[in-house]
Design a protein that fits this description.
The protein is α/β, with parallel strands linked by helices. It is 41% helix and 21% strand. It has 2 domains: 144 residues, D-Maltodextrin-Binding Protein, domain 2 (3-Layer(aba) Sandwich); 107 residues, 3-Layer(aba) Sandwich (D-Maltodextrin-Binding Protein, domain 2), CATH 3.40.190.10. The C terminus is likely disordered.
Length: 282
């Protein structure tokens, strides 16, 4: 009888220890969020709001979406991935690294031209991009903002209004292709180039004294859709989903709008996506 009681007590103790461990595992001290560099300002603020509400810190890795994808493919740990295009998210889905049911498109963005505040090259419109000797900086073709810039240049080149050699003259003026949009913006702010292709959201209040933006007409522009989702290997899927819920909440949308992103109703990635952009970038 004594042995039986001891056995029952041991089983009960193991059960309680297991339950306690499970509860501890579900209450992280920190979430790791891999985030497209263009979201730096907005997600920095959303992350602070999340920490204030949950007492869980958020460690961000801000980088080009293609760099983040490569890091995850090579084994880097992340709880959540937010990409500046669907192409990079789909690449991780194809190799079964994402929790597909968690993925949603949460905001949109589009490109503009950015120039130094004093605009020494006197850029005022798209035609000026073909000026001989102009210094243009943009993202690499694998970076969403670079891919979209190339699509815009192709659209302009196919418009007879800009002349048959317009695209070739623009491409000849490109002096640098950067791996994150932050590098593009920095070069323009420092006056190291005359004009760059960046997201509309990149011209923040902090940069307004050093950089101006020039709108690209919608007929030539590309709308970038931003998906977010939980990694399959996340140790804290419930808390990670709570972070995504905050991003897609009214509070999250207000912050994104403040930073220049387009407010939209979030939608599953299966029913949303810039098919043209992704096909062209594949």
């Amino acid at each position: 009888m004594i042995k039986k009681r001891v056995l029952v007590a041991l089983i009960a103790a193991l059960f309680l220890a297991s339950a306690s461990y499970a509860g501890f595992a579900d209450e992280p001290k920190e979430l790791t969020i891999f985030t497209a560099a263009s979201l730096t300002g907005a997600f920095g603020e959303i992350g602070q709001l999340y920490t204030n509400e949950t007492n869980i810190n958020v460690a961000f890795n801000f980088d080009g979406s293609q760099n983040l994808r490569t890091q995850i493919e090579n084994g880097a740990y992340a709880d959540v991935f937010a990409s500046a295009n669907i192409l990079q998210m789909n690449a991780l889905r194809r190799i079964l690294l994402m929790n597909n049911s968690s993925i949603t498109v949460f905001t949109e963005n589009k490109l503009s031209l950015i120039v130094p505040k004093d605009n020494p090259a006197k850029i005022s419109n798209l035609t000026d991009l073909a000026k001989p000797g102009l210094k243009i900086v943009m993202g690499t073709k694998n970076l969403p903002v670079g891919d979209y810039a190339l699509q815009i240049i192709n659209r302009l080149g196919n418009d007879s209004a800009y002349g048959p050699d317009y695209k070739a003259r623009i491409m000849a003026n490109i002096i640098s292709q950067e791996t994150t949009v932050n590098y593009v913006v920095t070069k323009i702010a420092l006056g190291e180039a005359d004009v760059g292709f960046a997201w509309v959201s990149d011209v923040t209040e902090d940069l307004a004294s050093r950089v101006d933006k020039i709108d690209i007409p919608d007929e030539y522009n590309v709308i970038g859709e931003y998906p977010i989702g939980v990694l399959k290997d996340s140790k804290y899927p419930a808390k990670s989903q709570e972070f995504i819920n905050l991003v897609t909440s009214e509070q999250g949308k207000a912050i994104l709008e403040k930073y220049g992103f387009s407010v939209m109703h979030s939608s599953p990635i299966e029913t949303a996506g810039n098919a043209t952009a992704d096909k062209a970038a594949a």
